[in-house]
């Protein structure tokens, strides 16, 4: 850690000089010491979000000092959430990386507090949920799979990169709900948890699990290699580029959008002025070529929602996931 | 021939000055990181990733930097194990068993040299395996499903029982304690916290590093304080390193353990720690004719070191060919590869051969660099023991606190470490061995998870565990091992009884 701290200090010195030369924006994005809090260990997904956005803010001179990235791992983001809500609720220097994974935890009441304890800033990109089978599978479309699941709910082995009740599992259940499978049967699905999309797909290739629900980015290589078939993407519209011929769930008649988005929240007592300035700063990052490049590299689709629109989106997602979790008995 | 040609091309990439420099830096930093208790390869690589980005290295150079750190920390991990009885990382725990007794006998320099040489042998063996067999092996590994993994872990736990010397009942207690500690935290299958008592700090489970440093380093310190009260503590003698190469190289041991380690490394999820334990257990079974293992047998140092370095190489196979991490370290490397626009997966060998072969060639180079770097340093490291204990021990405790704090930057972890230190001290007083505790933690979680996965897939039908031929074969081998152990023990007792009657 010392290495980083030392390098940061050095960078801070150099960029401080550069910052003096640059014109100071009318409303500062954040206060004197901008900080991005990653609720994971270095190297995790939230850490990556913080480091990428922090770097771009500096390059685009959204901030006049380098953004310090600090890590506070623990309980899938709950430790960081507890810290922000209890000690740093009014700290306008601070923005915290989160994603669908964190929001699922809030929906299942595993954070100390609900979504109204913090202010939701914006989402900048999203990975797309996909339903996968082996290239030689008996299932050719979502209808094949969901039909089979409907007639024999306990007969198909499914899996993905989350635990029972995690987002990979829940979005499969959302699809099943749209296919008219009753709640009592949802509980009978066989679900195997894996540590990531890659391991899940490898196990699928070995025939240990038949259908996998996970994010596209991590397993894109297998799709390109032609070893697996994507039954449906849970996106709002068809994806761009190499994945344009993947049918969406929506066009197959199952209106489910399962995005694993990446975004930020800040403390609940940050003033409107600072809140808006932070959103404006994030928007400049989102609009930059640098973000598009970084998003493309890590398999994210650039998606922007901010302010009240983002807060409504978060609230809608929480109520949907909470309702479903209650129906299948994950929470009471 | 194709492979040789690609490899030759890889060497032209790996021997570019910038890549050589990067490999050298990586090896050096890795050795230091590995040697510091608490900071293992995972943290080391996470620390260096921002550096790789900010230096604007090409993907090949960045990958070479990270893998040489990985290999380097595998080399470095055993230094503290041998000198201080504190494992530098999880795969160096077994090295304590014979490494520390060797150091106590004044053979520290020998032990360090042996471990460096057998690490080199294991690493090179694995790199050759990676060169020749990678795609074939990766396809074989996918046949390992939950049932097969479960059978493998059951076998590992049985084998581990054979590692410990002394009272079998106490070994069993120690192993169960480890299994129990391993269940703390969020259950990966259901996402429900277990035994966390509402403390968020326990949700991620108890980090292995905290337990290991507490049990080994802090309890060692407590024992030292106790001994000091009853008189001056004897200084550990520092012998000179043997110059006879014969006494430092164990080719048969390295080959056996290296092959085993490589195969285990290839299986995603099993990793270097399991490999080092299995390597040690195998060697003990094959060579321990006179009961010298656990008392400073050099082969007990050579075997786990060859196995864990071979496993590090092996774990690159699923990472490069399938895009599946074989260990925590490769998981982080994988994330970095993706951000460098390298898509690991089935097409990597075809689409970006210069990266794959450049990396493979760099592995050969790093291994040589590490050997050359480590042998001269042996004397220097061994000098550490000339520091009088009343200076050395507080230093060790300081480094332990720093190391544990650096993992999560969380003071709760420090309290836990001290708690485990006191616990370890009590276990020592009760004569309960510490190594099986650590093993229970390491093996218990993946064993439980593979059992849960198998049960989830079968809908709760236990017989599924025996319905796969591969799993059945593994269980049969385990059963044979138990039988052999029972028969041996019975014969020994019979022999003793007969001797008693005769006398």
UniProtKB/TrEMBL annotation, chain A:
Extent of the signal sequence: 1-28
Annotated keywords: Signal
Family matches, as InterPro entries: BUG, Bug_dom1
Matches recorded under Gene3D superfamilies: Bordetella uptake gene, domain 1, Periplasmic binding protein-like II
CDD domains, per database record: PBP2_Bug_TTT
A Pfam family that the UniProt record links to this protein: TctC
Highest taxon of source: Bacteria
Family stated for the protein in its record: Belongs to the UPF0065 (bug) family.
Protein name: C4-dicarboxylate ABC transporter substrate-binding protein
Automatic annotation (TrEMBL), chain B:
Name listed for the protein in its UniProt record: Tripartite tricarboxylate transporter TctA
UniProt xrefs under InterPro entries: DUF112_TM
Regions crossing the membrane: 20-39, 45-71, 111-144, 150-166, 173-193, 205-225, 257-282, 322-343, 355-378, 390-407, 414-442, 462-487
Superkingdom to which the source organism belongs: Bacteria
Database matches in PANTHER family: TRICARBOXYLIC TRANSPORT PROTEIN
Gene source species: Teichococcus aestuarii
Signal peptide as annotated in the record: none
Domain DUF112 stretches: 20-439
The entry's keywords: Membrane, Transmembrane, Transmembrane helix
């Amino acid at each position: 850690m010392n290495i980083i701290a030392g390098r940061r200090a050095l960078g801070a010195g150099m960029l401080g000089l550069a910052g003096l030369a640059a014109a100071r924006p009318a409303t500062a994005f954040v206060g004197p010491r901008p900080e991005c809090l990653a609720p994971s260990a270095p190297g995790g997904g939230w850490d990556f979000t913080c480091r990428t956005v922090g770097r771009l803010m500096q390059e685009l001179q959204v901030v006049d000092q380098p953004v310090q990235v600090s890590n506070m791992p623990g309980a899938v983001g709950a430790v960081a959430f507890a810290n922000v809500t209890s000690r740093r609720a009014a700290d306008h220097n601070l923005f915290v990386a989160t994603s669908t994974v964190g929001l699922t935890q809030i929906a299942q009441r595993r954070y100390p507090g609900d979504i109204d304890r913090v202010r939701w800033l914006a989402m900048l990109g999203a990975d797309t949920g996909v339903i996968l089978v082996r290239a030689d599978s008996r299932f050719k479309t979502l209808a094949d799979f969901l039909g089979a699941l409907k007639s024999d709910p306990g007969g198909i082995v499914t899996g993905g990169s989350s635990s029972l009740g995690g987002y990979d599992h829940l979005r499969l259940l959302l699809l099943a709900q749209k296919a008219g499978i009753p709640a009592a049967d949802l509980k009978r699905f066989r679900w195997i948890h894996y540590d990531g999309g890659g391991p899940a797909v490898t196990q699928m290739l070995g025939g240990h699990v038949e259908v996998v629900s996970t994010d596209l980015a991590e397993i894109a290589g297998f799709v390109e290699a032609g070893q697996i078939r994507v039954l449906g993407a849970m996106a709002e519209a068809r994806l761009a580029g190499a994945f344009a011929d993947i049918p969406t769930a929506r066009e197959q008649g199952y209106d489910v959008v399962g995005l694993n988005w990446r975004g930020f929240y800040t403390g609940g007592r940050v003033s409107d002025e600072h809140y808006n300035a932070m959103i404006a700063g994030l928007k400049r990052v989102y609009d930059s070529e640098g973000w598009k490049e970084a998003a493309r590299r890590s398999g994210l689709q650039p998606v922007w929602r901010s302010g009240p629109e983002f807060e409504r989106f978060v609230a809608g997602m929480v109520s949907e996931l909470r309702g479903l979790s209650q129906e299948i008995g994950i929470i009471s | 021939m194709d492979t040789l040609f690609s490899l030759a091309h890889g060497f032209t990439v790996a021997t570019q000055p910038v890549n050589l420099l990067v490999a050298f830096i990586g090896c050096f930093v890795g050795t230091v990181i590995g040697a510091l208790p608490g900071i293992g390869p995972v943290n080391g690589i996470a620390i260096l990733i921002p550096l790789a980005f900010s230096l604007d290295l090409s993907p090949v150079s960045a990958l070479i930097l990270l893998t040489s750190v990985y290999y380097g920390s595998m080399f470095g991990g055993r230094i503290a194990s041998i000198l201080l009885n504190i494992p530098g990382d999880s795969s160096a725990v077994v090295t304590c068993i014979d490494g520390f007794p060797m150091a106590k006998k004044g053979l520290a320099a020998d032990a360090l040299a042996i471990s460096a040489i057998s690490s080199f042998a294991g690493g090179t063996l694995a790199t050759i395996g990676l060169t020749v067999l990678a795609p074939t092996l990766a396809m074989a590994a996918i046949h390992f499903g939950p049932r097969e993994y479960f059978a493998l872990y059951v076998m590992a736990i049985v084998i581990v029982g054979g590692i410990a010397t002394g009272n079998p009942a106490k070994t069993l207690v120690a192993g169960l304690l480890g299994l129990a500690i391993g269940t703390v935290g969020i259950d990966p299958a259901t996402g429900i916290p277990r035994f966390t008592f509402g403390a968020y700090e326990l949700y991620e489970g108890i980090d292995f590093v905290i337990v290991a440093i507490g049990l080994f380093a802090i309890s060692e310190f407590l024992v030292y304080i106790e001994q000091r009260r009853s008189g001056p503590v004897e200084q550990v003698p520092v012998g000179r390193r043997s110059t006879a190469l014969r006494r430092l190289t164990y080719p048969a041991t390295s080959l056996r353990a290296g092959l085993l380690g490589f195969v285990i490394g290839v299986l995603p999820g099993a990793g270097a720690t399991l490999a080092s334990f299995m390597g040690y257990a195998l060697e003990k079974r094959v060579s321990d004719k006179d009961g010298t293992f656990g008392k400073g047998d050099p082969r007990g140092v050579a075997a786990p070191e060859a196995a864990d370095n071979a496993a590090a190489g092996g774990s690159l196979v699923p990472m490069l060919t399938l895009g599946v991490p074989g260990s925590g370290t490769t998981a982080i490397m994988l994330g970095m590869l993706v951000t460098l626009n390298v898509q690991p997966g089935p097409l990597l060998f075809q689409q970006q051969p210069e990266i794959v072969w450049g990396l493979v060639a760099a592995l050969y180079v790093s291994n040589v660099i590490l050997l050359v770097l480590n042998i001269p340093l042996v004397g220097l490291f061994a000098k550490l023991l000339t520091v009088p204990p009343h200076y050395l021990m507080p230093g060790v405790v300081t480094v332990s606190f720093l190391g544990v704090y650096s993992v999560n930057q969380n003071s709760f972890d420090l309290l836990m470490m001290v708690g485990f230190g006191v616990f370890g001290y009590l276990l020592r007083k009760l004569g309960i061995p510490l190594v099986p505790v650590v093993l229970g933690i390491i093996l218990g979680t993946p064993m439980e998870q593979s059992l849960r996965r198998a049960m989830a897939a079968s809908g709760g039908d236990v017989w599924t565990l025996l319905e796969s031929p591969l799993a059945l074969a593994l269980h049969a081998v385990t059963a044979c091992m138990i039988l052999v152990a029972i028969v041996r023990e019975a014969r020994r007792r019979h022999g003793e009884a007969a001797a008693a009657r005769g006398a």
